[in-house]
Design a protein that fits this description.
Keywords: Molybdenum, Oxidoreductase. It comes from Streptomyces tibetensis. By secondary structure, this protein is of the alpha+beta class. Helices cover about 25% and strands about 20% of the residues. Bound molecules: dioxothiomolybdenum(VI) ion.
Length: about 725
């Protein structure tokens, strides 16, 4: 029904939306939604609508919602990296207190994994739990023990003896595996070649040819994955923590061959996802057990289990070759990226793909390839492709700037494309250079001494670095319902997911803005597959996709409900569906952009690196809520520090498992690691989105690790091309 024209986009922009909002504005608004913030315009700071519930504990998460007669499942994971389950000694465990059943490949319900999943990509068959005796990686689920209490289930699960026929495994990822790698189109084409790369490299005055690596990384949302399943009046009901209840409900319906209408998944509050919260082993295990026992069953993953069951970001080995004229103008840009995947599923970490849109060059070759190892299947993790890819490309740009004797920002200005460098398509909007100009001004970049290793402060060497950020601007079809209630309030119903981003609040503001009512007269219901089809919280597309549907519904309500009309007790409800409007969008290069700046201090005696300050300036569409938007950017930048200096999941080649698969062994940047971070933005409303939104969930991490690494070079004169830049690598003086 409702389609939204481009013309509406401009006219709905008002208030202080889209202007540069300073950090100061955002901070002073944290006192509450009082004073000028009360109305809740798009663009004005507004505290999260469920914030009070969250800080008082009233907001319940999937692992703590009470159910009558709830049984508890505990997963048993393989202790070998490859082989077969020969035997499970279930009798001993079934005799333990409270134990109700043990599910495994010999007795579990059959499921169907041969269906088409998200974005037309086949789902990871790892969700087909207990269907065979093969073990494809360390930490593969081999059994579920269900008991009356969580403690009984855990004790029995830990007591279960599983015997394996072991086979030799291979988890050794390295750049040297490229010879056996293969290209596969994932959510973008794997290999794209434009122009004669070798000829342009040969004609270049300066060539940078460097290899970069990034380690295996894990999402580690604060809230572990958890799901409770039960059969209720012939319907399967699942209470879960996920990034899209429709996504999970659809996959569960497919797996268990159920009518989609008979599956309901709810996920009201989510303590982070970062790409890891789709359909995974815990929901499938809970559904199997609830079906077998005919009572509610909950399965919660431990932190340690998340390291093999929640997906991860593959390690990457990348090679970048840049050829330029003496003045820095690029003739050739080659970016190749290699990632690992499991033996059961192909997942591409498209590390080279983002390079297709960044810089003009006469020849452009990009390729992402993968190699199969005996590891868990990697998955989407915040800025999949862009995060590791930007470390390589933006480090290489810094190396080229050094070699050409050009300021790194000026180098990017000289290679700014007028249209998509490979696609030839126009940009929706491209304000990368505006981000660099504003960032340089705010950071104090001008007058920087380009020489490395010459600034000292006591035992510290000081340096500054910069890098570019980009992330695609996506939108997924969504439906929404909007009810004008008889009491003068409004209810939005949309199957959105608020994974901590503040989506619920953003949609409240979007609706209030179109309806021209105070935000406290709008309530937003989300996180329930019964609400209908809508985008997942993924691809940084959630708020844009849902905001579009909410705007369309609100515009329709204003058209169909005259001002002052009597509203019947049941209210007046309108619905929207954005599929048609999205289908009519012209093809463009649609991206958010940003500039990242970092200052570091390096102690050459200990190898310690301290990030002293960071600044990110983003051109990421119209900012709906500066408070929660700043959280997104600063969160992404914090991930960038973490990626640059700390995070590294190390696989033990002997066992095939991870060393220290917990938050003690896998260090995520904590308060002591994170300095003052400023994030701000330039005016950049998306011309085709009815609200002007682009999406901000992922662009904040992109380029952040490169900015830190470039600052470490500026401090020390040593290039670090392997992440993380650990103290031992600093002491070793570079590639190690
Ligand atoms: Mo994000 S990695 O698209 O959930």
């Amino acid at each position: 029904m409702t389609t939204t024209t481009q013309g509406d986009a401009a006219t709905t922009t008002r208030g202080n939306a889209g202007g540069t909002t300073t950090q100061g504005d955002a901070d002073t608004a944290t006192q509450g939604n009082t004073g000028t913030a009360t109305r809740g315009n798009v663009g004005a700071a507004y505290i999260r609508v469920e914030g009070r519930d969250k800080v008082t504990g009233a907001a319940r998460y999937a692992g703590e919602i009470p159910f009558a007669d709830l049984a508890h499942g505990w997963l048993v994971l393989s202790s070998v990296a490859r082989g077969r389950v020969r035997a499970l000694d279930t009798d001993a465990v079934l005799a333990m207190p409270g134990v109700l059943t043990v599910l495994h490949h010999g007795n579990a319900p059959r499921v169907d994994t041969a269906f088409t999943g998200m974005m037309g990509v086949a789902p990871d068959p790892s969700t087909g739990l207990f269907q065979h005796d093969r073990v494809p990686h360390m930490g593969w689920p081999v059994a579920l023990v269900v008991a009356e209490t969580s403690e009984q289930a855990r004790e029995a699960a830990e007591a279960l003896v599983v015997r394996y026929d072991r086979e030799p495994h291979d988890v050794a990822f390295s750049a040297g595996r490229e010879a056996e790698a293969y290209a596969l189109d994932g959510h973008m084409p794997a290999v794209v070649e434009k122009g004669d790369l070798e000829a342009e490299l040969a004609a270049s005055a300066v060539v940078v040819d460097a290899e970069y690596t990034t380690p295996e990384e894990h999402h580690n949302p604060m809230e572990p994955h958890a799901a409770a399943a039960r059969w209720e009046g012939g319907r399967l009901e699942v209470v879960d923590s996920n990034q899209g209840t429709g996504w999970v409900a659809g996959e569960l319906a497919n797996l268990f061959s159920l009518d989609p209408a008979s599956v309901r998944v709810r996920s009201e509050h989510v303590g982070g996802g970062f790409g890891s919260k789709g359909t995974r082993a815990h929901q499938v295990a809970a559904v199997m057990a609830a079906t077998v026992l005919q009572r509610p069953v909950r399965v919660v993953l431990t932190r340690r289990q998340m390291f093999s069951l929640a997906g991860h970001r593959s390690p990457t080995a990348q090679r970048v070759r840049l050829g330029a004229d003496a003045d820095g103008r690029l003739r050739a840009l080659e970016h190749r990226s290699l990632n690992h995947t499991s033996t059961v599923h192909d997942f591409v970490e498209p590390g080279a793909a983002a390079s297709r849109s960044m810089y003009a060059a006469d020849a452009h070759h990009t390729a992402s390839r993968l190699v199969k190892l005996d590891v868990p299947t990697p998955t989407w993790m915040r800025a999949p492709g862009e995060a590791p890819g930007s470390f390589a490309l933006e480090s290489a740009l810094d190396e080229l700037a050094e070699r050409c004797g050009i300021d790194p920002i000026e180098l990017r200005v000289r290679n700014e494309p007028a249209v998509g460098p490979v696609s030839g398509l126009p940009f929706g909007s491209r304000n990368l250079i505006a981000c660099f100009r504003e960032g340089a001004r705010r950071f104090g970049w001008d007058g920087r001494d380009p020489r490395p290793g010459v600034r000292r402060e006591g035992r510290w060497l000081l340096g500054t670095g910069t890098a570019a950020a980009s992330f695609p601007t996506l939108a997924m079809p969504s439906t929404a319902a909007l009810t004008a209630e008889a009491d003068g309030t409004f209810t939005v119903r949309i199957n959105a997911a608020d994974i901590g981003t503040g989506a619920r609040t953003a949609l409240t503001l979007v609706a209030a803005d179109v309806l021209e009512v105070p935000a406290d007269r709008v309530r937003v219901r989300i996180g329930d597959s019964d609400l209908g089809a809508a985008s997942i919280a993924g691809g940084s597309a959630g708020t844009r996709s849902w905001g579009w549907a909410v705007t369309a519904a609100a515009q329709e309500l204003r058209r169909s409900l005259p001002q002052g009309a009597d509203i019947p007790p049941e209210g007046v409800t309108v619905r929207s569906d954005t599929a048609e409007a999205l289908g009519a969008l012209a093809r463009k290069e649609r991206h958010a952009f940003g500039s990242q700046f970092a200052e570091v201090a390096v102690d050459p005696a200990t190898g310690e690196i301290r990030v002293r300050r960071m600044l990110g300036i983003f051109a990421a569409g119209r900012i709906v809520n500066p408070l929660t938007a700043r959280n997104q950017f600063v969160g992404g930048m914090t991930w960038g520090i973490s990626m640059a200096l700390h995070e590294e999941a190390v696989r033990d080649r002997a066992s095939g498992g991870l060393y220290g698969a917990d938050l003690a062994g896998y260090h995520v940047a904590a308060h002591a690691d994170v300095p003052h971070i400023e994030a701000d933005w330039v005016d950049d409303p998306d011309p085709d989105d009815p609200v002007g939104i682009k999406g901000i969930g992922e662009v904040g991490i992109v380029g952040a690790a490169a900015a830190v690494a470039n600052a470490v070079w500026h401090a020390t004169g040593v290039r670090h091309r392997n992440l993380p830049i650990r103290p031992d690598r600093v002491l070793a003086g570079g590639d190690a």
